[in-house]
């Protein structure tokens, strides 16, 4: 049915692309209301666009009403095909841009957690150099969870990602940058905040509620979490720190990130000589694919920065 629907769209022009872009945004926002802000158009206009797309495809793409927004089986297939289409369009634009002497196009950067503000990463300096050398390139810069960054770089939906390096993935290049040491912290409201006896701490920690990132970032981290009472999940450092400061949970944070609360007397590292693990931060990019001069220039500048630090 879906293949016949695609055949019924004899040509895919600018109008059809616009309708598909609206559809993709609605799906990723989870409904019409949330998509209003993202698309900067009214809900009624979105509804008209969706109806026009369904009419052109001769398919029912979604259920919408009081029960909420949900894709039909055909809608899910069209959504996946739309993602592939926009990825191919981005590759085409990158190829064309690479053929021009004056660098244009877009570089899409995703970073995990607080990496972008770490001076060891030097992204502010790299971005300044990049903007000077490629002033006509549009930069898209956002944060996302580790797994999403890997997926989007692999699929060509992002050009460069910054993540904790926890595994090698076929098809990706890894630029190793710096290491972060993560310690186990509790807040000043936690019963263990004033406990100094190491044996008592080790024993008490077995029952303590732990808030963790929800992803396996390294074998060291897995070993530390193995016997702990994983009671809550918060991927980003900011949300995890808030849960630790509540006094209900203990949790691992990058030492550099947690230092601000340690200095204020609001957090304390528990057994820092044994309760820790290291994370290697890396920049990832696709090893193969279409020519992408903006991405290659960005990686080149980043590599120069890292080598200068070393």
Automatic annotation (TrEMBL):
Gene3D superfamilies, A to Z: 3.40.190.290, Winged helix-like DNA-binding domain superfamily/Winged helix DNA-binding domain (1.10.10.10)
Under Pfam families, the record lists: HTH_1, LysR_substrate
HTH lysR-type domain: residues covered: 15-72
Keywords assigned: DNA-binding, Transcription, Transcription regulation
The UniProt entry's sequence similarity note says: Belongs to the LysR transcriptional regulatory family.
Protein name, entry field: LysR family transcriptional regulator
Record the organism: Amphritea pacifica
